[in-house]
Specification:
With 430 residues, the chain is α/β, with parallel strands linked by helices. Helices cover 25% and strands 24% of the residues. The strands form three sheets. The protein has an eleven-stranded mixed β-sheet. It is globular and about 60 Å long. This is Methyltransferase-like protein 2.
């Protein structure tokens, strides 16, 4: 570990707390994908930041701990009563929780002891944001419903306009171009691979809505029936890092009407083997804490995909003052989510590349302040050391709702968080 990891965090968005735990700032991580725009921290952090949290003093790490300890006896009694009423499957889930709990507590304690990152944490929502840039999201009704748009019969005819800005270097003022030209390209937006192969992010237009496309990225927007179009003709062009965030059946998601969910059996048809690179792939699957789901993944989904389980990572969620977003032992609303990791063998089964990979440490914890509902932090960089095959890695996210430089994003709304209202232009800083 570095003696002072803070300068590295300011650049990378990753702060190493100890050997098995890190704190991450998703905004800093995402902003490495952009040159002309950047993600607005005030719109990313739309939850768990309020006037109380953001101004609470973090000079002492005892305040969050004291707040947690003050409820320990009540939680212990609640847990005792709850365990007595758990069914067999819930008892298995509780045992899983008890096994990982020490790692979560150790990671959280490391965060509370890192006073330098706590000071940064409470200002994340306004970090590097001048007053005129610190905006709030407009009403959701102003969003373009990509799922509804892709479901109508006219969808194959809809086109997206890609605007490429070329700076005029002929006339410059103190190093800054005085003018730029715009090159426009028009391409089908659904059931089509839309790519930005340049080294600058671009602005795209669809039905009077603007979207920011990261550098060196592409998306394929379709429903599950069209995912086979993503399969490469040659496995040497396949993906060696596959991240999947399925819309699992979830009562909470239905109540909030945020996105439609799918029955578990639908995910059995995902062509994971066909998407793999010749040398194989590391697969990262987001799952909830429901034991029924874990059982389905271990006994049905991974075997069908040809994936061998390797390790589990955990995303621990905190508020702006460093305390957990919920009680750790609250059975149905625990403040963490699980990322299951496994390997899928490629066609080149005799290369031995999987055997030469760094072993994945189990029970690693990454901590962050959550963004919008269902929005996962970009964790690809934490996985690169364990990816087999070519470098740089060929990365794909399935059921994606945003884009990252160097990645392919597939789903029925990969542009959701690319809406321009989530961004600010860097030109306002000059």
């Amino acid at each position: 570990m570095e003696d002072n990891p803070l300068p590295s965090f300011i650049k990378s968005g990753i702060y190493q707390l100890n050997l098995t735990a890190v704190f991450i700032d998703p905004v800093r991580l995402l902003n490495r994908s952009y040159t002309r725009f950047r993600v607005s921290p005030s719109t990313y952090y739309s939850r768990f930041f309020d006037s109380t949290n953001s101004t609470q003093s973090t000079n002492s790490t005892q305040s969050p701990k004291a707040s947690e300890d003050s409820r320990k006896r009540k939680r212990k009694q609640k847990k005792k009563n709850k365990v007595q009423s758990l069914n067999e499957r819930e008892q298995i889930a509780d045992r899983r929780h008890q096994e990982v709990k020490p790692f979560l507590l150790k990671a959280h304690e490391a965060l509370l002891e890192a006073t330098d990152i706590l000071k940064v944490l409470r200002n994340l929502r306004n970090d590097g944001c001048v007053v005129r840039e610190c905006k709030e999201l407009s009403k959701e009704s102003s969003e373009l419903s990509l799922m509804e748009l892709g479901g109508v019969w006219q969808a194959p005819m809809y086109e997206i306009v890609l605007n490429y800005y070329h700076d005029d270097k002929t006339f410059q003022n103190e190093g800054f171009p005085l003018a730029h030209s715009i090159e426009q390209r028009v391409t089908p937006v659904f059931n089509n691979l839309v790519a930005n192969e340049g080294n600058d992010d671009i602005e795209a237009e669809l039905f009077n809505h603007k979207y920011i496309i990261p550098k060196r990225s592409c998306f394929y927007m379709s429903d599950l029936q069209q995912i086979d179009s993503l399969i490469p003709a040659d496995s040497d062009c396949g993906f060696n890092l596959i991240v999947i965030d399925p819309p699992w059946e979830n009562g909470s998601a239905r109540q909030k009407v945020r996105y439609p969910t799918l029955p578990n059996r639908y995910f059995l048809s995902l062509p994971v083997k066909e998407l793999c690179h010749t040398s194989g792939a590391l697969l990262a699957l987001w799952v909830t804490n429901r034991e029924k789901l874990r059982d389905f993944v271990e006994n049905d989904l991974f075997p069908k995909w040809g994936v061998t389980y390797a390790a589990s990572f955990y995303w621990l969620k905190v508020k702006a003052n460093g305390i957990l977003t919920g009680e750790l032992d609250l059975f149905h609303h625990r403040p963490y989510e699980c990322l299951l990791l496994g390997y899928c063998k490629g066609k080149d089964t005799h290369s031995g590349k999987l055997a030469r990979m760094n072993p994945i440490p189990d029970n690693r914890v990454f901590i962050s302040v959550p963004g919008d509902y269902s929005r996962k932090p970009p964790i690809g960089e934490l996985l690169l050391d364990y990816v087999p095959g070519p470098i740089p890695a060929r990365c794909v996210e399935l059921f994606a709702r945003e884009m990252i430089a160097g990645w392919t994003s597939w789903g029925n709304e990969p542009l959701h968080f690319q809406d321009s209202r989530y961004f600010v232009s860097k030109t306002t800083e000059n």
